Amino acid sequence: xCGIVAYIGSKNAPNVLIDGLTKLEYRGYDSAGxxxxxxxxxDVYRSVGKLINLKxxxxxxxxxxxxxxxxxxxATHGKPSYENAHPHSSFGISLVHNGIIENYxxxxxxxxxxxxxxxxxxxxxxxxxxxxxxxxxxxxxxxKVSVKQIKGSFALAVISVNEPDxxxxxxxxxxxxxxxxxxxxxxxxxxxxxxxxxxxxIFLEENDIAILTKNSVTCYDFEGKKTDxxxxxxxxxxxxxxxxxxxxxxxKEIFEQPRAIIDTIRGKYSLExxxxxxxxxxxxxxxxxxxxxxxACGTSWHAGLVGKFYIEKFxxxxxxxxxxxxxxxxxxxxxxxxxxxAISQSGETADTIAAMRLAKSRGAGILSICNVIGSTIPRxxxxxxxxxxxxxxxxxxxxxxTTQVIALLMLALYFAQEKQTLNHVEIRNILTEIVKxxxxxxxxxxxxxxxxxxxxxxxSFPSFLYLGRNVNYPIALEGALKLKEISYIHAEGYPAGxxxxxxxxxxxxxMPVFIIATDSKVYDKVLANIQEVKARxxxxxATVTEGNKDVEKFTEYCIKLPAAxxxxxxxxxxxxxxxxxxxxxxxxxxxxxQPRNLAKSVTVE
Length: 605
Fold this sequence. Notes:
Layout: E1 2-8, H1 13-23, E2 31-38, E3 41-48, H2 51-61, E4 67-73, E5 88-90, E6 93-101, H3 104-113, H4 124-133, H5 139-147, E7 152-160, E8 163-172, E9 177-181, E10 184-188, E11 200-203, E12 208-212, E13 217-221, E14 226-227, E15 232-233, H6 249-255, H7 257-265, E16 269-270, E17 275-276, E18 291-296, H8 298-315, E19 319-323, H9 324-327, E20 338-344, H10 350-361, E21 365-370, H11 376-379, E22 383-386, H12 399-419, H13 424-445, H14 448-458, E23 463-468, H15 473-487, E24 490-495, E25 512-516, H16 523-535, E26 539-545, E27 557-561, H17 566-587
Parallel strand pairs: 18-19, 18-20, 20-21, 21-22, 23-24, 23-25, 25-26, 26-27
Antiparallel strand pairs: 1-4, 1-10, 2-3, 2-4, 5-6, 6-7, 7-8, 8-12, 9-10, 9-11, 11-15, 12-13, 13-14, 16-17
């Protein structure tokens, strides 16, 4: 991990590589490097820390080349260091690698017995020496032989000084996309790295090897059989990936949520008929499934928890929500009557892919919710509900989360329509509220300056507690996650009804407690929680519905939101928890968009 860029063409490769790696900074990294072919040798440039260190080095050295590979690394094997940074080389062969090689120690021992010397602690250097050991004047054949000896996940970009007219790519359980243009070709881990250069892409599939020259792209499987891979046009405006005047990408993406909600639901309903129009789900016969398993990681798991409330309430189908990294390690009950819903912003989350493949092997129907067209999870699903959040650069998810939640609500209504657990009038009533939602989210965003001022009072506290009930309980979890992700302040989320079962012991004058108290069927119980916190000198921050006078008696930190039905209040509360976390982090002077130790897309287990 974490970001790969490769280029061959007529431009100066170092410039293209640095530009692409800059576009991938959002994925998170701790070191960076490039390798370029310069006449009869490969020049490698590496640095630890931010990409600016590598840029400064290249500005001084001024390398010139028309072919090269680049990488931003997020440490898996070996600490962040110059020696462990990519690219890694072996006798005129250099490569970059995303993923984890599970059998690298066995391979390393065998190579050491053959006389190979190792300079790093990484599994990636092992691959470089392995390819060299298999090299017999054909770099493609050497890579093809080597990948069959490797166990684990990998995306590779390989160059050889002996064949300076090509780049070899290979992927297994780690994403890699090819960008195509006239007289030049590219490769990267993700589309944003290349969108400034082309809108034509090939998404490599599992066990693909590709040969890139400046004028051609040829794809094969691991057996060497040529494969046809479709060229897809991806229309993403490069400006969408810029900050557009905001201080940080996260701030911009918080404010993009009303638009993202509109784009995600557009064309998917008829208000006049009280009907969901989800043609992309025609291959899913919801009536045949007796249970639903929602599986995801991190923020997507929180979205899944909200989805459980929606599906069970409206469609009357029992739902289990699992963390993907645990799903395949327990005795899961999966059969042909199980609908498996995978949620992943990137479509490349390794644990979610593994869980999905397990469910598929046991006959479950596979439905996914994803933001990236052409990624692995949609390709391997029976049907996909694509969110239309647009590129999300900030590591801490915001608009991807709320578009996943609205997708789950639309799915729940579609299931209810198909199972006839709601009639058209009932569906129309809910759709009417959904249509009003973006405007209410815009109103909530007007609280930004109020929340910014509030953040100044809370930036120095060491811990927070977040409480919510019913459908807003997952929002409490998400609030705690957002705060710890970008401000490094310890935070825990709990169901408010569980406060007496442990968390209440922590409450004193040094413990801010964020309580979601917007109108709901459990509002009176939440109000009692607020009183209990105040009785123990705790500091209450509360979201309430406009017109609420009760909570103001207990706290000056009252955030008033537009009235919304309980199921839609999650979107308004989400904006508040995102803004609070954002402003606390900004007040602390931290790197909001690239928090330490985190990657945007976790493509290894």
